[in-house]
Amino acid sequence: MRGEKTFSFFLLLFFILISQTTATNYPINVWPKPTTFLWPNPKSIFLSSNFTISHPYHRYLTPAVDRYRHLILSEHHRPIITPAINLTSSIPLQSLVISVSDVSSPLAHGVNESYSLSTPSDGSASAYISAETVWGAMRGLETFSQLVYGNPTRVSAGVYIHDLPIFTHRGVMLDTSRNFYGVDHLLRLIKAMSMNKLNVFHWHITDSHSFPLVIPSEPELAGKGAYSNEMMYSPADVQKIVEYGMEHGVRVLPEIDMPAHTGSWAEAYPEIVTCANMFWWPAGSSPALAAEPGTGQLNPSIPKTYEVVKNVIQDTIAMFPDSLFHGGADEINSDCWNTDLSVQKFVASNGTLSQLLEKFINNTLPEILSLNRTVVYWEDVILSGNVKVNPSLLPPQNVIMQTWNNGPNNTKQLVTSGYRVIVSSADYYYLDCGHGSFVGNDSRYDQPPGTDQGNGGSWCGPFKTWETIYNYDITYGLTDEEAPLVIGGEVALWSEQADSTVMDSRIWPRASAMAEALWSGNRDETGMKRYAEATDRLNEWRYRMVSRGIGAEPIQPLWCLKNPGMCNTVHSFTS
Length: 575
Description:
Blueprint: H1 2-17, E1 36-38, E2 43-54, H2 61-74, E3 86-87, E4 93-102, E5 115-118, E6 126-133, H3 134-146, E7 148-149, E8 154-157, E9 160-163, E10 169-175, H4 183-195, E11 200-206, H5 219-225, H6 235-247, E12 251-258, E13 273-274, E14 297-298, H7 303-319, E15 324-328, H8 334-338, H9 341-348, H10 353-370, E16 374-378, H11 380-383, E17 399-403, H12 407-416, E18 420-423, H13 426-429, H14 466-471, E19 486-493, H15 503-507, H16 510-519, H17 531-547, H18 558-562
Parallel strand pairs: 2-3, 2-4, 4-6, 10-11, 10-19, 11-12, 12-15, 15-16, 16-17, 17-18, 18-19
Antiparallel strand pairs: 1-9, 2-8, 5-6, 5-9, 7-8, 13-14
């Protein structure tokens, strides 16, 4: 009873101080930085070797609790700089008590992820996490795990946290078509996302290069379209990934990109794909047939296309329980469609290619909606300067737009039209940029010494540094009425030059930078950007992620972490 009264006092204190966010760097920090983090008298307390976590039983919270208890007792994290914190003389912390107001709330877009956390400083036996939902409780468990360090294990004492995200959609998009990633690697990605309080794995499963997803009603799509029998995702694989995501508070959002980016479908159904397996940039022709090697687009003018597409939609949605389904609809290439006789006939009868795309949308969108899904499309479907549909066909209550071009300008256009928006601006959030071009026989790389190399052949270069990502304000230029339509953002790793061997280092810790910006913001309580003080914290967090099995790349020499502030452009200590 005493513990409950003490925690109630902490909650009252949270409500008084809820609007305060401190820029102070404490001896132990949490990533992403909590909304409210109070530690008036930094000290630590030993953790009992018999430490327990009590919680309401839940199908997904219970395994998360077991996982975190094991981590807390076995990690023995040693910070690069030993925290100058005195130990209390109190008895070791015996338990963490988790209370959840609503254990039935499903993991879905917009679910409440808030939590409050307190650790004792007065000899109390328990720490407390209070959350509205089990998903908020998972976020609190991650925070608690980051307050634990040392051998013997100790925990930060007298800490008071109230925390909730600014944006409800915080994700990583990974392309598994251009290069294949094994199931274990996808599970590791989800694990790292959960550590960073990211909550959406946007799985770009198929593209022109391969079709690795086994569709039960259309087995030949993967049977002929995957790179090999070993490079497929079975329904059992999908179930494993989705369940693992649930246990980590990460939703899995499937994308079947269509009608463009579908060359791999032609291995099973050549009759429904235009310009399949053609050289992407024909000799003597200025227009290319695709944005990159790997041609092929579904033909909306023939009925067979919709027989196959509807089977794919139905089976994919049956495997993925999330309320969102990503339908792609980006980068329609006019010249690819124009190679087909049936398309030529359609155009000769006074049809346009935009009308052809509208035909495809009109035949597929109702199918997706009938299965109780909200549809996500890439912005091209209404913003392309070439082939696009009338926005009246895509009601904002049923459709979310994902933007990747022209930074804040396209975000502004989409919200002005009333759409909810996921921001993945290539200028800031594309993690594959800066590695040059992947096409061979490229004369851009055969230039006289001294030639300006520009972006090194990368269409979206230069490389996006963690500071570039951290400092991007995804609601920049929007009015107070427009900004709430931005539901969040995703960093994206397209896999022309990536696979599982480099996945961790391409994504982390740059995705961590976005994670904090979308969780608690990139500014301190005065409104100033806080990337300077974030540097040392991210350095330490990257080091801890590596110790947890995530191959995050370094952002500075280790010397910088051992000498805080010495590697800034302007000398300042961020202790």
